[in-house]
Write a structure and sequence with these properties.
Strand content: 25-35%
Order of helices and strands: EHEEHHE
Oligomer: single chain
Number of helices: 3
Number of strands: 4
Shape: globular
Structural class: alpha+beta
Amino acid sequence: MQFLVTAKDGDDAEAPARRLAAREQHLAGARRYAEEGVIIAGGAILDDEGRMIGSSVIYEVPDRAALDAIIAADPYVTGGVWQLIDIRPFRLAVRSKG
């Protein structure tokens, strides 16, 4: 089952520092999940000045419980980066070959 996750960072003054502190661990996990086929695509949401203010990820997992476990362990969650997380069932209609 596929899910689209949109997660917004906090908007407090310390939010960019929290993201930076957790970023390498978050990306290492994301790369591993991408290699396993759990993450189909993902990346940072940017503001008009190009600063990272959130993330959007498409996951493919057996069910919502599996996704919830993955998200709960993500360094962006445990590190307090993601403050507002929206999860929606998703069906990918087009996939890039690259």
